[in-house]
């Protein structure tokens, strides 16, 4: 093995001191090529991957992936290729085509920012090298990997593995030049236990392979954060020729009902912004510990089972991930500082899809809920260490991009686009977006490029002035931000106001109905009462948000008696309800909270629940106890965020 760990003066050893090493690796700064990306060590200008062939052997027994990553490079004459790695053990590196390989020297930098970025892997190459093969294995520090024991799955009998690459975690399971600015195609050959199925963000098999060997191909160039893999007891249900859902057999009935509108969603999206470019669009329902609601892995969106609410009330998550097939996957943020170009566009697009399918009233309701989240986020950011995080364009050098991925990118981003739309008119804006997706298809884009394109193709030709610099580069929400008004939500706010004043707006009401029986008019008494299903989830969320923070336990108990929020089975409602309950020392919720935190791993829910518990002396110890018990079951993305909360 030709591994040399780089420290201070070891650089001399690297290339045998003849010729003297060009690189002294003791400081991250020297490495990070800011022209491209603050979060990758790779020297993309000199040499970059164009295609990746993966050979992976997945061992559930050792919770380890043994791999070979065969990179095909475009080499502009460099004698060193730099990759990103974190938590990987590198066995050897060879150059040349498979079977005619020769081993080469490599070095792993010992960097000061490695808890975020990991290390640069420097590989000695020839100026003409185009094939680099990295033999490696993952470790318990491979943060992308979610290894789930069978008790965390629906079957309770077979284990599960999933990967999460975004933002900078692909380097923890594949040695890559892990920057969204570089696009690659890939193929993979994956060996898994014979009773489990493997799927990737690529063309997938619909059936179990008896040998446990799966081959994949993604022949459109994608950024490294979109390479993904899942292995588990999976079955497939098609909705159409080109769309369907993978899930554990136990979830098949529920999943196939919940997502039945998928072909319609794809149709609506195509009508808006052009042909779907990825051939197939499938969903994969993961176990509950998946840290996100959804992740837009190309051809195969990953979704959290909490999205299966039973009444399609949370399918906007699917509309969102589908929208990423254009904004994000087709046109990709060049760096994580430009994250809003992925998420802001996607939230805008998601709401347009929802409007097409379910009407403007529903999409306005979604936008109002998001606006509420944004206001809270802006308040939090204003008083935080990084008030500049309320700008759309972020400056994340030396920071973990994950820490600044907030509602600002999503909602301020979407409201920015909605505000432009209102100013120029929908027709012109849609034309502009169509040309944006066409122009930058399979490319990457940063904020400056977007502004240039906006000026040239929308604002100038229509002689329109717009304060885009304020939106993108300044803090807070500009005053021209459009307002959303929803009559249905106003009604819920009124309910909340009256209920908090002590008026029992939900009490059963005695009513009379007049019926004609045998020619005689008869008065019939009946009881009218509002039921949980009379309003959609987002209406109830608005109701809960509009109750005073200190409403008092007894009023909450009464609401639970009417509507059973605490056991509603809808994770959005339960999260909001738990938070309000904790603030009001509604201790009867504790056992339900415990159950929820022991089952679900979606960070969006867990973080605010834990935070509220930690801020209340009556629930602080319980929060820590629950976390200690469950942390081994949370994905690193969720676990690390909660750990940071507990430490602060
Ligand atoms: N791409 C994101 C998830 C993500 C963001 C992972 C940043 C890692 C880093 C995904 O599309 C997303 O936004 N998911 C949301 C869904 C929602 C906004 C409908 C989620 O999981 O909450
Ligand atoms: Zn998204």
Write the layout of secondary structure elements.
Blueprint: E1 3-5, H1 11-14, H2 28-31, E2 47-59, E3 64-75, E4 80-85, E5 88-95, E6 102-103, E7 106-108, H3 114-117, E8 119-124, E9 131-138, E10 145-148, E11 160-163, E12 183-191, E13 197-200, E14 213-223, E15 229-232, E16 235-240, E17 243-247, H4 252-258, H5 262-273, E18 281-285, E19 294-295, E20 300-303, H6 316-323, E21 331-333, H7 339-358, H8 360-382, H9 407-424, H10 426-439, E22 443-445, H11 447-459, H12 468-473, H13 487-500, E23 509-517, E24 520-528, H14 537-546, H15 553-563, H16 571-583, H17 590-599, H18 603-614, H19 620-630, H20 636-647
Parallel strand pairs: 1-7, 2-12, 17-18, 18-20, 21-22
Antiparallel strand pairs: 2-3, 3-9, 4-8, 5-6, 5-9, 7-8, 10-11, 11-15, 12-14, 13-15, 16-17, 19-20, 23-24
Helix pairs in contact: 5-6, 5-7, 6-7, 7-8, 7-9, 8-9, 9-10, 10-11, 13-14, 14-16, 16-18, 18-20
The structure holds ligand BES and zinc ion.
Task: Give a verbal description of the structure.
The chain is an alpha+beta fold and about 650 residues long. Helix 5 crosses helix 6, helix 6 (about 315-325) crosses helix 7 and helix 18 (about 605-615) packs parallel to helix 20. The longest helix has 23 residues, at about 360-380. It binds ligand BES and zinc ion. Zinc ion (ZN) binds near residues 324 and 346.
